[in-house]
Design goal:
The chain is α+β, with helices and mostly antiparallel strands. 40% of the residues lie in helices and 29% in strands. A seven-stranded mixed beta sheet has the order 1-2-3-4-5-7-6, with helices on both faces. Helix 1 packs antiparallel against helix 3 and helix 1 crosses helix 5. The radius of gyration is 18 Å and the shape is globular. The relative contact order is 0.15.
């Protein structure tokens, strides 16, 4: 198996990126921050409009994480388990009746099937993105997210190596990222990859929500 990183450039790729982000976030984050905040943050930071703005106005670069098999790859079965993701907390509206939930899950299932057909060969197993921070000569890794069934396969490590090469090619001094203080698995993983906690921040993102994060940095020089 090999891993490559394909830059997201065309608008249809940005649309596929937003679909994947929606599924991954709803599978992973409600158990940590609740469904309401998950919905709010997806709309604010992981939606189609957010990705378009990041790329057009904020200097972000996004990449699909691509997994290549030596043997004939099987189709990507599902980008998420759509019927289960709403059982982990309240939706942003608070209480949504069963009929609306059923319609929403049906739409997710159809989106997942469409995405799986386009992702099958080679398989798109996650996404990542960030931008150069010129005033500190660092690269900010904003996002590394993987489909559930592909976590634990060394893909996060591959993404960090990808950014190390990219940053060195551009003459940057360090990588940095933010991690939710309650995301213990991610904190351990980044420490194992050479990152150190250098600060703690609480960021008001609106609507009464606070991002409670550590800032972690890995020096390259």
């Amino acid at each position: 198996m090999s891993v490559t990183f394909r830059q997201v450039e065309r608008d249809e790729e940005v649309e596929a990126l937003a679909h994947m982000a929606y599924h991954i976030w709803n599978e992973y984050w409600p158990a940590i921050i609740g469904q309401a905040q998950t919905d709010y943050m997806v709309e604010k930071f992981q939606s189609l409009n957010a990705f378009r703005t990041d790329i057009a106005d904020n200097g972000y670069e996004y990449f699909f994480i691509m997994q290549h098999e030596d043997e004939t790859p099987h189709e990507l079965g599902a980008a998420t388990h759509g019927a289960d993701i709403h059982d982990q907390g309240d939706t942003v509206a608070g209480r949504v009746n069963d009929d609306i939930e059923s319609d929403r899950d049906g739409e997710l299932a159809r989106d997942t099937e469409d995405f799986a057909r386009t992702a099958a060969v080679p398989r798109i197993v996650g996404y990542t993105g960030g931008h150069v921070e010129a005033d500190t000569n660092r690269f900010f890794i904003s996002k590394i997210y993987l489909l559930k069934e592909h976590r634990g396969e060394g893909l996060c490590s591959a993404a960090i190596r990808f950014y190390e090469r990219l940053a060195r090619e551009r003459g940057l001094n360090a990588l940095y990222l933010t991690v939710n203080k309650h995301n213990e698995m991610a904190i351990r993983a980044y420490k194992a990859k050479g990152f150190e906690v250098i600060d703690a921040v609480e960021t008001d993102i609106g609507d009464g929500y606070i991002m409670d994060d550590y800032i972690m940095e890995k020096k390259l020089v």
